[in-house]
Amino acid sequence: MQNSLESLVNVLESYRGRDKVIRTMCYGSQLIGGILSEKLGLSSAVLGKRLLLFSAQLSHCRTVLRLFDDLSMLAYSQSYGLGAGEEDCPLRWMSVLNNAADQLYYPCEHIAWAADAQIISAKSDKWWLLSGILWGLSLIFGILRSMRVILLLRKKLKKLRQDDSSGSRSQLRRQVRGEVLSILSSMADLSNAVHWMPPGFLWAGQFPDWLVGLMGTISSVIGLIQMGASQATSA
Question: What residue numbers bound the domain in which 234 lies?
Answer without folding.
Answer: 1-66+205-235
